[in-house]
Amino acid sequence: MSESGTWLVVGLGNPGPAYAGNRHNVGAMVLDVLGARVGGAFKSHRSRAAVLEGRLGVLPGGAPGPRAVLAKPSSYMNESGGPVSALLKFYKVEPERLVVVHDELDIPFDQVRLKLGGGEGGHNGLRSISRSIGTRDYLRVRVGVGRPPGRQDPAEFVLRDFSGSERKELPLLLEDAADAVELLVQQGLLAAQQQVHAPS
Question: What is the pTM of this model?
Answer without folding.
Answer: 0.95
